[in-house]
Amino acid sequence: MNLRGLVSVTGKPGLFKLIGQNKGGFILESLDAAKVKIVINMSNSKMATLEDITIYGDEEEIRLLDIFETLKTSDIEIPAVKADGTTLRNFFREVAPGHDESRVYSSDIKKVITWYTIIKELPLFNEEAPEPLGEEQA
Q1: CATH topology for 6-50?
Q2: 17, 36 in Cβ contact below 8 A?
Q3: Where would I find the beta strands (DSSP E) of 1-138?
Q4: Where do runs of H (alpha helix) occur along the chain?
Q5: What's the mean pLDDT when you consider all of the chain?
Q6: Cα–Cα nearest to 66, from 100, 28, 91, 97
Q7: Would you say the pTM of this structure is higher than 0.85?
């Protein structure tokens, strides 16, 4: 799964693809059909790559990519985003066992479902992630 360059921006719905940088900030393009381009200034907005996002766990944090991989390879039925809290929580117990139920809210689960729905159709979803920069091949 190659989700490098896909980001979430605080206060903006959906996901964005990082397409460049200028002196005003980062240039992003929405992943929806509109393909809206925006410039995000890091002094007044927070941006997180999907590769770096983690979910609170009881013992250790759970990577969002691991949850997406579980969804991709399993036959777990994904509930509707508007499902009730119990349905969402039961679903998340299957895909993210060991998550901290007191710190992971229904809104977080809805966000994971929404993001997965957006990216599962992208070609990047089935590509291998490139090696991190600076690591040499043995």
Answers
A1: SH3 type barrels. (2.30.30)
A2: no
A3: 6-9, 16-22, 25-30, 37-40, 47-49, 54-55, 62-63
A4: 64-73, 85-95, 106-119
A5: 87
A6: 97
A7: no
For the chain, what is the total number of helices (H) and then of strands (E)?
3, 7
Q: What is the largest CA-CA distance in the chain?
A: 49
Q: Residue 118's closest CA among 86, 78, 90?
A: 78
- Rounded to whole angstroms, the Cα distance separating 107 from 65 reads 18
> How does 19-35 read in b/e, with b if 16+ C-beta sit within 10 Å?
eeeeeebbbbebbeeee
Domain extent listing, the chain = 6-50, 54-125
CATH of domain 54-125: 1.10.10.1650
Query: What is the distance of C-alpha 41 from the center of its chain?
Result: 21
Residue 90 neighbours by CB distance under 10 Å: 12
Which residues, 6+ apart, have CB-to-CB distance to 96 below 8 Å?
55, 57, 62, 67, 70, 104
pLDDT tens, 106-117? 999 999 999 999
d(CA 8, CA 63): 15
Place of tokens 């990082």: 18
